[in-house]
Specification:
The protein is mainly α. It contains 5 helices and 2 strands, in the order ααααββα. About 60% of the residues lie in helices and about 5% in strands. Strands 1-2 form a two-stranded antiparallel ribbon.
């Protein structure tokens, strides 16, 4: 793995952990009802408007960076797969017997042209 891919993976993992933490820190929409019964002092840490806008913006920015790193990792994986394909890894090709048209026999079973000529495909017969 080259240094750029390693850097993107590290950033991706750090952003993922930060996103989980930020989502867990944020208050739900029903939490405002609790502030009416004496919990309003907790919002003074982030200013008079509370932590909602700051944490929402930070979560949005981290989510954008997360999607960019995800896309970058997909591009790296695609390039690595293309290099592996060019390296001479054998590819499974279909045989000519599978490409032959099937012909209905007198019993109503389908047989390919290769099987009718007496070739053994190595597969058991279906009953």
């Amino acid at each position: 793995m080259d240094w750029m891919e390693t850097l993107v993976v590290v950033v991706h993992v750090v952003i993922a952990i930060a996103l989980v933490g930020l989502v867990l820190i944020q208050q739900g929409k029903g939490a405002d009802a609790g502030a009416a019964f004496g919990g309003g002092a907790s919002q003074t840490v982030f200013g008079s408007q509370g932590s909602g806008s700051f944490l929402t913006r930070l979560t949005t920015m981290l989510a954008i960076v997360f999607f960019v790193t995800s896309f970058s990792l997909a591009v790296f994986a695609k390039q690595r797969a293309e290099v592996a394909g060019e390296a001479g890894i054998p590819v499974v090709e279909e045989s000519a017997a599978e490409d032959a048209p099937s012909i209905e026999s007198s019993e109503g079973q389908s047989q390919s042209a290769g099987e009718q000529q007496g070739e053994d495909s190595g597969l058991p017969e279906l009953e």
